[in-house]
Amino acid sequence: MGEVSKDAIITTRRRARRTNIQFDSKAFDEHTKQIGEIIYLWNRLHAQLFMIFWSLTDRESHEFSSGIWHSIQSDSTQRQMVETAANLKLGKRLAGHVSWICRGHERLSRYRNAFAHVGFYAHYSDGFVPEYFSSRKSALALFEEMPKKEIFNKLRGDLMALTLYAEDVALRIFYNLKSSASPWFERPRLQLVPTTPRKPKKAQNRILSAKTQSPSRNRSGMNRGDAPAEP
């Protein structure tokens, strides 16, 4: 809860201050720097989602696309708008890149929201730690799974990589570039997003299936490769 004891409230007449002793601490500077970087990178990434949406709706009228975009107050709904527009107006390959960006944006949002909305307070030995009384359990669980600094480092890197990738895709759509016009930006690996194993291709499935089947028999009833029985 608060950092003021019950006895201090009863015995001391306190006044509201416009500064806080915590603001001069090294831990406070580090904590606010972390939040500032996350919010800055998140906004950059979200701007690329709008760039894609603008390119797919009315490239000649920024005001029209911007009006629709900002009439929606939900990040998740805006993601759905981008993905739906891409599936309707782009080829399968390029639409797949947009869907991958939207999925990454959605997966990282829980970590971004934890930094943006969880209250933190100064602990005498652990720096700034989450305020457990007012925060959502789902957000607190993230900081229990992984140290705060580790989450920050991975989230910062993921947001930067995903932003650069989204910027490349957005510019391809905006300038209507063909796939062969220039090399594709390498798809980044997001450290906070678990990877799913790729399904084996059909050819690989056939090979695996052939290996697991019982040996075929010839007309004589022998397995292929078996030596004929001695008379």
Outline the fold blueprint.
Blueprint: H1 6-11, H2 26-57, H3 62-70, H4 75-89, H5 92-117, E1 120-123, E2 127-130, H6 137-145, H7 148-174, H8 202-212
Antiparallel strand pairs: 1-2
Helix pairs in contact: 2-3, 2-4, 2-5, 2-7, 4-5, 5-7
Q: How do you describe this structure in short?
A:
This protein is mostly helical.
Describe this structure in words.
- This protein has a two-stranded antiparallel sheet with strand order 1-2.
- Helix 2 crosses helix 3 (62-70) and helix 2 (26-57) packs parallel to helix 7 (148-174).
- The longest helix has 32 residues, at 26-57.
- The radius of gyration is 28 Å and the shape is elongated.
- The chain is mainly α and 231 residues long.
- A hairpin with a 3-residue loop joins strand 1 and strand 2 (127-130).
- Helices cover 58% and strands 3% of the residues.
- The protein has helices spanning 6-11, 26-57, 62-70, 75-89, 92-117, 137-145, 148-174, 202-212, and strands at residues 120-123, 127-130.
List keywords for this structure.
single chain, 231 residues, mainly alpha, 3% strand
- Runs in which pLDDT lies below 50 for 5 or more consecutive residues are 216-231
Q: N-to-C terminal Cα separation, in Å?
A: 93 Å
Largest sheet: 2 strands, antiparallel
- Determine Rg (CA atoms, Å): 28 Å
Shape descriptor: elongated
